Amino acid sequence: MIVAKFGGSSLADAKQFQKVRAIVMGDERRRVVVPSAPGKRFSDDDKITDMLYYCFYARQRGDDFDAMFEKIKARYFEIANELSLSVNLQPYLEEIHAQIIAGANADYCASRGEYLNGILLANYLGFSFLDAAEVIFFDKNGVLDSEKTNRRLAKRLSAEMPAVLPGFYGSDAHGNIRVFSRGGSDITGALAARACEAEVYENWTDVSGFLMADPRIVANPLPIRHVTYHEMHALASAGATVLHEDSVAPVSQDGIPTQIRNTNDPSHPGTLITSTAVRRENFSIFAGIAGKKGYSLLLAEKQHRDASPAFMQGVFQAAQHCGMDFQLLSVNGSHLCLLIETEQYETKSIGFWEEISEMGVPYFHSVEPGFACIVLVGYGVVHNYQTINRIYKALQKREIEVSMITQGMSEISTWVAVQEDDMEDAIRTLYEEFCRDTH
Ligand code: ASP
Q1: DSSP 244-296
Q2: Assuming Cys at both sites, which of 46, 118, 134, 372 could form a disulfide with 423, CB separation 3.0 to 4.6 Å?
Q3: 277 to each of 183, 227, 273, 285, 382, how far by Cα in Å?
Q4: Is 387 helix (H, G, I), strand (E, B) or coil?
Q5: Which residues of 279-412 form beta strands (DSSP E)?
Q6: Where is the Aspartate/glutamate/uridylate kinase domain (predicted)?
Q7: Quick check: helix, strand or coil at residue 365?
């Protein structure tokens, strides 16, 4: 069976609901459907979730929120009326309005967007409605209880399929509604796919999958047909916007592929994300390129050369104690160079140099901001000895100075540090060099 999650723009109005129904009915394996709340119908439209948060904050300030609530009501009624649905939304909306007046918390308010959309969609599809509060659980610290969720979801879904399970929320140990972070319906879909041991988790959105580069930087980048969860993670860590990061683990750990597809172009295959690279047509090609500004180069150098690795270990440990994430650029007997997000360095490095000084080894250090980090991702990137050579040559031709190149420890990525002002040009150059001819 297939779990199909539909994002907010896929369910923004009655016309979009019709497309969703055609997709769901087009394959009888699509037996669990996870909707987001209605999103934008046009670029400066409002998302229902934002409108609900608005109501919550207005109520908190003691301001009137009725005008906004009327707008929310109108959106749902319009969908129900245009599709001639039999469900009566009035009592649900009255209950939500009363709860907001009574001081319901932000999570409850925000979650009602998915809740109401789920009721509408279940009615429209003729599927049962499974309230996520009864099957998605958070522990007392507000962290997802994935095992309890998995057991309960598996049991309820197998009994109630075909079903609509609203995304984004669940309940905590006291029965209060909790939501995931924004975009969290992706996680609900992944949890459902895991619980049902789905053959594929379809994530329907308004784009035909991922692109090999940011289209704001590279003109008409090629689509990514197939990528692994690992590669996707590497691209995301350098700024590519992909799935909600917590939606990967539930499916990738069980080897369930995720397929990104376009509700407005349903015949397009989109992007398939799998745990292993086995099914990739061309094993050695690049998956894509991404880049992010706002990095600093951090250099620590021992003044006396000795063979002891204790100093380097001490620097790593100090970084770890401060909770700083970094990319190792180079290390040898006496020096260590790290690439770290400037904001992280500024907020987390308190005590970092002191801890290193306590080792009693004389050293020199420097921290230079203003760098961008570009990552080239794909199996075969690291194994191809020519890669680094090609990167240097291509960038040199454009007179772009490369501050550092390193190959990621996961063996699927090569990181290139350049000056921030050179990032876009460097991405375009490397895209032309490596990605343009891979399909
Ligand atoms: N509706 C929620 C949001 O806007 C969750 C989601 O769409 O996944 O973030």
Answers
A1: -GGGTHHHHTTT--EEEEETTSTTS--EEEESSSTT-SSTTS--EEEEEEEEE
A2: 372
A3: 27, 7, 9, 11, 15
A4: helix
A5: 288-302, 327-331, 335-341, 363-377, 402-407
A6: 1-262
A7: strand
8 A C-beta contact, residue 168 and residue 188:
yes
Q: State the burial class of residue 197 (Cβ atoms within 10 Å of its Cβ: 0-12, 13-18, 19+).
A: exposed
Residue 12 CB less than 6 A away from ligand 1: no
Q: Is the pLDDT of residue 67 over 50?
A: yes
Which two three-digit tokens encode residue 238? 């350098």
Structure tokens at 382: 């690291």
* Ligand 1, pocket-test mutation among 185, 205, 206, most atoms within 8 A of CB: 185
Nearest ligand 1 atom to alpha carbon 188: 8
Which pLDDT score, from 0 to 100, does residue 284 have? 47
Pocket of ligand 1 contains residue 35 by CB under 6 Å: no
**Binding site membership of 113 for ligand 1 (Cβ less than 6 Å):** yes
Cis status, amide bond into 309, omega within 30 of 0? no
Which of 6, 40, 45, 47 has most ligand 1 atoms within 8 Å of its beta carbon, as the pocket-test mutant?
47
Distance in angstroms (rounded) separating the CA atoms of residues 336 and 150 = 44
**How many A from CA of 185 to the centre of ligand 1?**
6
How far does residue 7's CA lie from ligand 1's centre (Å)? 8
- Rounded distance from Cα 261 to ligand 1 centre (Å): 17
Task: Indicate which atom in ligand 1 lies nearest the CA of residue 36.
Answer: 7
Q: Any alpha helices (H) in 161-213, and if so which ranges?
A: 185-195
Q: How far is the CA of 90 from the centre of ligand 1 (A)?
A: 23
- Rounded to a whole number, what is the distance in angstroms from the first to the last CA of the chain? 31
Percent of the chain with pLDDT over 70: 94
How far, in Å, is the centroid of ligand 1 from the Cα of 38? 9
The two three-digit tokens of residue 81, written as one number: 């009326």
Residue 102 CA to ligand 1 center (angstroms) comes to 24
CA distance to 247, 288, 367, 369, per residue, from 240 (Å) = 16, 10, 26, 21
pLDDT tens digits along 290-342? 999 999 999 998 887 766 778 888 888 899 899 998 877 777 777 888 889 99
Using the Cα atoms of residue 359, residue 364, residue 368 and residue 372 in order, give the sign of their dihedral. negative
